[in-house]
Fold:
Amino acid sequence: MSASMQTTVQAGRPLLEVNDLKKHFPIKAGFFGGTTGYVYAVDGVSFSIQKGETLSLVGESGCGKSTVGKALLRLFDITDGQVVLDGQRIDDLSLGKLRPMRRRVGVVFQDPFSSLNPRMRVRDLLAEPIRNFGLAKDNADLEARLAKLMDLVRLPRDAVDRWPHEFSGGQRQRICIARALAGEPELIICDEAVSALDVSVKAQIVNLLQDLQKELGLAMLFISHDLAVVEHMTHRVAVMYLGRIVEIAPKRSLFAAPKHPYTEALLSAVPVPEPGAQRERIILKGDVPSPINPPKGCRFHTRCPYVFDRCRVETPELRSTGGAEHLAACHLHDKPEAENPLARNVALLA
Ligand code: SF4
Structure:
């Protein structure tokens, strides 16, 4: 994997803006199916992605990161908030009006085995979105588009006539990526897209995604629990905990100097590449609390090694902690530096 992102991030109006996104799933019970409560899966998430930029959304399983991805794809209606693609709100569009916007967002899911219809040849799997979006002028154009897609994902052109079961896991994920690119999107959502792959195959797919981003100028939302992969993939990182973003920052800044205790704990589990270098592992106590009844105050307070009284009653805002682009939601940053353990850790890591 290449050590740094080479893609040019275009400044100006973001390609994607997500403002205070909420998705609360109702809990139904009883004969009449009345609502007895809600799962607060996503509870006020905001971020933006520039053209050509990768933002990684990370966190433990159940933190709401995949729900954010599905909400952006309009796989369900959101509870509140706004999703704006290239200046146009898409969260409230009717299905008819959403159609042309769908072409602009591709998706790659985790499991390349269940993502592809086993009864369709690769040719038909790739031709389906091209036909649905009315992109091919005629058969010759369709064939040219199929050939280009196979070239893009580094598979032989004649493989379009094979069936999904004839490919390995990594090759199938290449086909899934080709399918995601068939509509010529500007944004790709990768939802744990390399998590199910072996280590060496994972590296190849990560490299491919990076190359494609560079070649096509794609923006990418890379949803992952694997910070070691994210470190190679991304320009910025947003860390989610229990339905909210607790820290968002450029990659270098976040990996070198985490400003939230949860990020610090996640990073402590990532292997350090330099031989001999050591990082003290921080083991968090307990499990992530239920999103049905999230803790009051700071949602991380039940597991935080630095918890103090204020954390149990007051919700910390996501705000600048030093650099304008490095935001974190933690009351520790209101303390004098000498009493802020994160400040001490930053000094150790620097
Ligand atoms: Fe820990 Fe308090 Fe910061 Fe929450 S606000 S992360 S409980 S120190």
User: Anything to note?
Assistant: Residues 260-261, 298, 300-301, 304, 306-307, 311, 316, 330-332 surround iron/sulfur cluster (CB under 6 Å). Confidence is low (pLDDT under 50) at residues 1-6. The chain has ten helices and twelve strands.
